[in-house]
Write the structure tokens for this entry.
Amino acid sequence: MLANPSWGVTRIAAHLEVDERLVRESLDELAELALLQPSWDEPGVLRPVSPQVGLSSLLARAEADVAERQRQVEQTRAAILAIAAEHDSSRERDGVIYLQGLDQVRGRLEELAESVAVEVCSFTPTAAQRPDTHEAGKSANQRALERGVVIRGLYQDSFRNDPDTLAYVRWLTELGGQTRSVPTLPMMMIIVDREIALLPVDPSDSGQGAVELRAKGVVLAVYALFEQIWASATPFGEFTPVNEHGLTPLEMQLIEILAEGATDEAAGRKLGLSLRTVRRMMAQIMERLEAQSRFQAGVSAAQRHWVRPSR
């Protein structure tokens, strides 16, 4: 059309060796894009428009469409925030939001993952999480990290033997997340932007739900606990340190728990270890102590200052 503006549909089709129907469809599309306009000199004939003029008009329409969509997005965001505020006010009692059951807890975690602006800190104790739990939080964590949010997670040392958790930790670390582990953690806990803390209603049964706390003094106290444990934790990817007795923090914790009179089953629950693992570790410790019984091992451990004296 630019090179031969006087050609009609038939001649263009013959020159390009294509069907006339395709030529008409192409001319219609060019007209919709404002690249063809009716001729002033020859009524019924379309004239080509300068690409600079036609495409600039097309770009202006596209920009107007984008601006309209952005306006709609902002209106939707404002509506969501208003609805969320109403939703929170209906759940809050005496400054505490009670989340009943896992559905409400996970739903609230999804909301917080989208609204967090600075940092998320968490404790993940007990047995290893299921793979689908990791998968469910991946997309939200990735979006948060892309926004520049700092994600720090504390796990129990027992997670280092769980392939699914290790795969998730590697994925999170590659995106910029930070993870460390310690022998034991007091309970499940999540802190968002140092302003909101989620704690379980019953630390021994997460299925009962959680409480969301916003009181500044309480949240800062919980955050201080996180920082204290974080400072002594071992980053994933590094060798677990040993003390002057050649014991890992997990082994020391096991000895202290058993020295307090706990059973192997109770020690396993607290450390997130299977009964078989606890007994295997204890057998190795007894061998190092050259002890034939648990009592003899306890006496020997005390003599070697492996356990702190009871008060």
